[in-house]
Every structure is written in structure tokens, then in C-alpha cells.
Design brief:
The protein contains four helices and no strands. The chain is mostly helical. Helix 1 runs antiparallel to helix 2, helix 1 packs parallel to helix 4 and helix 2 runs antiparallel to helix 4.
């Protein structure tokens, strides 16, 4: 396979990574919306409820803790990944955020010196960096998913306890 074909394949991989990054952003924003709704509903239910025992207060407190931990993980996942060095310390040239701070002549020199082989190396470095950033984002959203599940459980326990209190079933 010649360098041009390799470059084309690497560019398609980078486009796929962009799609994954967009999906992570959508999922993260959805989780953030759910968390804010849980936070508002939990706080409203807690402060408007007549009889909230100590045990139920602990459930609410634990659920709020999970809520804040989930929000932190979501914000980590949504934060742009701008680490532009791979494990060996090698930076990409074209896609680096550093390029914005360079003198305009640098960009001209960079493009004038760019050949297919340098472009190929830059694309490989970029693919490695993208995949590392994606791994970090997937891990953060995975933790957020588990914490969101714990929150759902806490909200269900809280809602059932409130309904039992209001209906007087156990009185």
C-alpha cells in the first residue's frame, strides 16, 4: 500500500473517531440533563416533604453525592481532549492546538515542508492521540452510567417512601 492509500485510510479512521466524539458529547449532554432533573426533583421532594426520617435523609444524601460525582465525571468526559503528545512525547504538527499560537509564517513553512510521508506520520500520531482521548472519555462516561444507575435507585427509594408517607399505608 502506498503512502497516499495509507493517508486515505487514516483519514477515514479519524472521521470515525470524530463520529464517536460527537456521540460521546450527545450522551454526556443527555446525562447532564438527567442529572439536573434528578437534582431538582430530589431537592424539591426533600424540602417539601412533611416527614422525612433520618434513614430517608441518608438515602437522599447518598443520592446527592452520586449526583455530584456523576456530574464531575460527565464534565470530565465533555472536556475537550487537548493533550497533543503521544506516549513517546511526539506531537502532531497539523492538528495541534499549539499551531494557533504560532506565527503565520510557521504555518506556511509547515505546509511547504509537508510531503505524503510527513502527512502520514502526522495522521498516525493524531489517530493515537484521538484514541487515547476517547478512552478517557469512555471511562468517565462509564463511571457516570453506573453512578446514574445508583441515583435512579436512590430516587425510586425516596419516591416510594414519600408515597407511603403521604398515603399513610404504614401508619
Amino acid at each position: 500500500m502506498d503512502t497516499k492509500q495509507k493517508n486515505d485510510k487514516l483519514q477515514s479512521v479519524l472521521q470515525r473517531y470524530d463520529t464517536y466524539y460527537n456521540a460521546l458529547g450527545i450522551k454526556g449532554n443527555t446525562y447532564l440533563t438527567i442529572n439536573v432533573a434528578f437534582l431538582g426533583g430530589l431537592m424539591t421532594g426533600y424540602f417539601t416533604s412533611d416527614k422525612v426520617g433520618q434513614e430517608l435523609s441518608l438515602v437522599v444524601l447518598a443520592t446527592l453525592g452520586c449526583n455530584f460525582a456523576t456530574i464531575i465525571n460527565i464534565l470530565i468526559a465533555l472536556q475537550p481532549f487537548v493533550d497533543r503528545k503521544d506516549e513517546s512525547g511526539k506531537k502532531d504538527s497539523i492538528f495541534s492546538v499549539v499551531i494557533g499560537g504560532k506565527h503565520p509564517d510557521y504555518n506556511g513553512e509547515l505546509w511547504n515542508d509537508m510531503d505524503d510521508e510527513k502527512w502520514n506520520q502526522d495522521l498516525k500520531t493524531q489517530a493515537a492521540l484521538y484514541s487515547r482521548g476517547m478512552r478517557r472519555k469512555f471511562d468517565a462516561l462509564s463511571r457516570a452510567t453506573w453512578l446514574l444507575g445508583v441515583q435512579v435507585l436512590g430516587v425510586v427509594i425516596f419516591a416510594v417512601a414519600i408515597l407511603i408517607n403521604k398515603s399513610g399505608i404504614l401508619n
